[in-house]
Amino acid sequence: MHEAQRRSIGSVVKVLRQAAGLSRAELALRTADGAAQRVGLEMLAKVEQGRKAPSPATAAKLARALGISPNDLARSAARWESGAAVGVQDAALRLELLAVVRVAPPPAPAVTSEDAPEVVEPRGRRADLVRQLEAAVRALTTRGTVDQLENAVLALQAQATPAATRLASIDIGGATG
């Protein structure tokens, strides 16, 4: 695998990991497949930075942990590489990738009742929006009004727009996780 291929597959893995809201450590944990060994943090960092080519087995583990098929990962990396070869900016490549590949939330590792984290209620603006949406759904079921539900959904969409803008500004080339 040549340098451009290493960089493109690493960029795709990083963008999809960040889009799924996973840290490198969380993605590495999700690569454990039964008795098979998980992908190490150091290896994952080298792959994302384009310094190391993943083996086919490692690429397949990463793809499955990201909720996509190994073929989708390979196709996305090839599109990234061809776009980068003609000078397409990373931000445009990132947006195109996220428009084409739908990152399914990977299955969470099994948690026993002793391991279960404490449930934390949302806070701040997000909590207010969740409460508004819940109230609108209750009102819809009791009064049949759609206006409150539409307003709550529009408010949530307005909150999602800045998040999408922040996602588009994530640094692809850095070593941060």
Description of the structure:
With 177 residues, the protein is an all-alpha fold. 63% of the residues lie in helices and 0% in strands. The chain has eight helices and no strands. It has helices at residues 3-19, 24-30, 41-48, 56-65, 70-85, 90-100, 124-143, 147-168. The chain starts with a helix and ends in a 9-residue tail after the last helix.
Give keywords:
177 residues, 0% strand, 8 helices, mainly alpha
Give me the secondary-structure category: mainly alpha
Overall shape: globular
Tell me the total number of β-strands: 0
What series of H and E elements makes up the topology? Answer: HHHHHHHH
- Rg, please? 19 Å
Low-confidence stretches: none
Mean residue pLDDT: 74
Helix content: 55-70%
- Helical region count? 8
Distance between the termini: 24 Å
In short:
The chain has helices at residues 3-19, 24-30, 41-48, 56-65, 70-85, 90-100, 124-143, 147-168.
List the SSEs and their pairings.
Blueprint lengths: L2 H17 L4 H7 L10 H8 L7 H10 L4 H16 L4 H11 L23 H20 L3 H22 L9
Helix pairs in contact: 1-5, 5-6, 7-8
